[in-house]
Write a structure and sequence with these properties.
Length: 325
């Protein structure tokens, strides 16, 4: 089974920041938030204070993963430049997203540098209240906030650009499926990926169905199914995760297999369930036919993230900051 990891975080320098303050490494893969909570951020053996590509490459080989999508989040702190370096170093094997706080004074300049100069063709908006921008900003809507609008107008100049969004759980003010629909309407030449299957709850499938049915008419909206084991509070002994199976069956029913992307949200998610389990759980179910599983595990991420023009854009880019030295 060919596989693309559709939701991975590499961490060169841990710089997490969210509603719990700043995240400081403690070694052995552990870290502490300013409010005192200690978390195991990296699985044992993956890194003490960072999670570098050299640690992930053997895991890729062991699990038969050909490519990976590098995303950003406030949990680890944005790793934009390191992700760019990795994608350049391993052309076609990794594709990288960048992130920016749209309320930063220099946000547009940051966007321009990453898109026009460094060749990024994916941007991640981590806006959840629990782990993203809504944890330290007043509530805002992605489809209505003027600062986000300025960014979207810039991205619209690059057909095939991918906008990936984590808007958190339904009880959070950041939960905005309708905003994704409005953006998909306004920018039909862009692709949108909603992370974590819109934060499902197998006990409340009507809520998930409502979000997915809003997405259904728009072929430029897909979902990834990363971290749903964490969200559903399923553990290694629950493999292959009956609650997650209910969620994904519903997603297939409404969106079809061609709009679902497998991913893990490692490294953190691989501290709750083993990475091997996260990489193989769908194969242990009968949700998808073999051809559908090939779509979910490989073809959809290839089609959306690894567009040839998107890979080539980063490979052609020359960093002006370095070329001037």
């Amino acid at each position: 089974m060919r596989k693309i990891e559709g939701h991975l975080h590499l961490v060169r320098a841990l710089a997490g920041s969210k509603n719990q303050g700043r995240l400081t490494p403690l070694g052995s893969g552990r870290a502490i938030w300013d409010d005192g909570e200690i978390i195991q951020l990296f699985p044992k053996g993956w890194g003490d204070d960072n999670f570098l590509v050299e640690k992930y490459l053997p895991v890729m080989e062991q699990e038969g993963i050909e490519k990976a999508v590098l995303l950003q989040g406030t949990l680890n702190g944005y790793q934009n430049y390191y992700s760019y370096q990795v994608a350049r170093r391993y052309p076609g094997k990794f594709i990288a997203a960048f992130s920016v706080d749209p309320f930063a004074q220099r946000a547009l300049a940051i966007v321009h540098r990453h898109v026009a100069d460094l060749g990024f063709r994916t941007m991640k908006f981590e806006i959840s209240a629990g782990g993203g921008l809504h944890g330290f900003h007043h509530p805002f809507r992605l489809d209505l906030e003027p600062r986000v609008g300025q960014i979207m107008h810039c991205l619209a100049d690059y057909p095939g650009f991918v906008v990936t969004v984590d808007y958190g759980a339904v009880q959070e003010v950041s939960y905005q499926p309708e905003a994704i629909v409005n953006l998909a309407q306004c920018y039909p030449d862009l692709d949108f990926v909603v992370c974590h299957l819109s934060f499902p709850n197998a006990d409340h499938l009507n809520c998930l169905a409502n979000s997915l049915e809003q997405f259904a008419p728009y072929p430029n909206i897909a979902v990834d199914i990363s971290a749903i084991q964490d969200i559903e509070n399923e553990h290694p002994e629950d493999f292959p995760y009956p609650r997650c199976q209910k969620d994904v069956r519903l997603a297939k029913q409404i969106l079809g297999a061609q709009r679902i992307i497998w991913g893990s949200d490692a490294p953190w998610s691989a501290t709750f369930n083993s990475y091997h389990q996260l990489a193989t759980w769908l194969e242990a179910t009968d949700i998808f036919t073999n051809s559908e599983l090939e779509q979910v595990m490989f073809e959809n991420a290839e089609r959306i993230y690894f567009k040839p023009q998107n890979v080539e854009a980063m490979l052609r880019a020359v960093d002006p900051a370095l070329s001037q030295k």
